[in-house]
Please model this.
Amino acid sequence: MIVDLPDDKDPILYVWGEMVPGIGTAASRFATSVYEHTTLGLREFEAARLRIAQINGCLFCQDWRTERDGVRVEDTFADAVTDWRSTSAFDERTRLAAEYAERYALDHHGLDDGFWARMKACYADREIVELSMCLGSWLAFGRLNHVLGLDAACVLPSHPASPQSG
Model:
């Protein structure tokens, strides 16, 4: 972990709530709101979220699966996100969500008229804005967690913390 934390504090709760309360608490509310208030379908939401997680390298974010009304994406979904260009597991909206996530994170200057025409054929303007806000949240906060080493402090069982990350 990059930042020094008190031994008796949970790393995530301390960094996001106590270290910089004027910013961290607001950031936490924003990060939570993309899950609580989304109108996007589960598959396109998860395709975009997982693609950002893969790009950020955030262990926790890669392990996490959003659940809605007891429903989650299938176990093979993360592999399909990795192969979003060629997978047969995605409809056009889901494929575009993964593509947008990747381009948003790695090549936002390359979002050309052809891409936007494809997006607008599948997504309403408010959905594009919502997805863009979600991408911004995941990119910023997943990257923050990974860069500071917090993702190793909050990983799920399938990704145990590595010895050098502690």
